[in-house]
From TrEMBL:
<keyword id="KW-0732">Signal</keyword>
<protein>
    <submittedName>
        <fullName>Membrane-binding protein</fullName>
    </submittedName>
</protein>
<feature type="signal peptide">
    <location>
        <begin position="1"/>
        <end position="27"/>
    </location>
</feature>
Length: 296
């Protein structure tokens, strides 16, 4: 889904060609009888669908263009179908339309010049945000980009990992809004599986009776209430084994920007839990999984 902004200068020509075809056959604003994707996308960001969606074989993949003061999203239906097949989900094609709409809504199509990495990442983040709002899981939101992006960065487009991270950032931003507004069950936040993902090893340390560690709080997990976890003065989260007299560091608390969830608990595998002001701990789908309390 190369964003063909350079294509804009030819847009007039292509659109004129398209209108000829459309007027002589059936004008088609979206895949007829199917979901009104454009309306769904604009509704979740609180906007009116002031875009025209055009299926045309005159673009290779998809493009956001302005023509005669109107905003168009052009897409090649064969390309979108191929992306859906390769990504094994219709969310893949939807993410491409959301990405192109992100170019319009971020004002990229109002500026001269071609594609650039910063604009691409903004559009990617927008697509992640929108797809989470529409109900896609993290992996579904990343599925399209995972198949169409290049491994390596180019002068106009960032590399695949950077782009998937941008989608993940948008998805998580929407997710946090949703968690904050209503804590109902939500789609899985598990990212798309990538090869070569290194897993940080969990560090194990032996506790000695003289270690000058003080304890700030105790964490009790709902599904494992018998096990004791403590937050140390260094904000490490440790699991105590009373019999072995060992303490295993299993995670860390870090401060966040969110006033609702001032701390984030990150474990050795970079999974995240969100700690509310009252000490309730939520997973990424908004389920309360633990409680942080006084270390009594
Ligand atoms: Zn783009």
């Amino acid at each position: 889904m190369t964003h063909l902004r350079f294509f804009r200068r030819f847009a007039g020509l292509v659109l004129a060609g398209w209108f000829c075809i459309a007027n002589s056959s059936q004008a088609q604003s979206s895949s007829s009888g199917q979901r009104d994707i454009l309306r769904e996308i604009t509704e979740v960001v609180g906007l009116k669908p002031r875009f025209q969606l055009r299926a045309t074989s005159q673009v290779q993949n998809a493009a956001a263009v302005v023509y005669d003061g109107q905003r168009f999203l052009l897409y090649n239906p064969q390309f979108v179908a191929a992306v859906n097949r390769a990504g094994h989900t219709d969310w893949a094609g939807i993410s491409i339309l959301a990405h192109e709409m992100g170019h319009h809504l971020n004002g990229h199509t109002l500026r001269p010049g071609g594609s650039n990495p910063a604009d691409e990442l903004e559009a990617d983040e927008f697509s992640g945000f929108v797809l989470r709002k529409m109900g896609a899981s993290m992996a579904q939101a990343q599925a399209g980009m995972a198949v169409v992006s290049d491994d390596e960065a180019s002068p106009t487009h960032p590399g695949r990992r950077t782009r998937l991270t941008a989608i993940s950032d948008g998805w998580l931003r929407a997710n946090q809004q949703i968690i904050a507004s209503n804590r109902v069950s939500a789609p899985s936040a598990t990212p798309a599986v990538l090869a070569n993902r290194a897993t940080a090893p969990v560090r194990t340390v032996a506790a000695t009776t003289s270690s000058p560690v003080s304890v700030l709080g105790k964490i009790t997990f709902r599904d494992n209430p018998g096990e004791d976890y403590y937050v140390t003065n260094a904000l490490s989260v440790v699991r105590l084994d009373h019999d072995d007299r060992t303490a295993e560091v299993v995670g860390r608390l870090t401060r966040s920007e969110s006033p609702t969830y001032p701390y984030v608990l990150v474990d050795g595998r970079q999974r995240r839990l969100y700690v509310s002001r009252s000490g309730s701990i939520f997973d990424t789908s908004g389920r309360q999984v633990a409680l942080l309390s006084d270390p009594s």
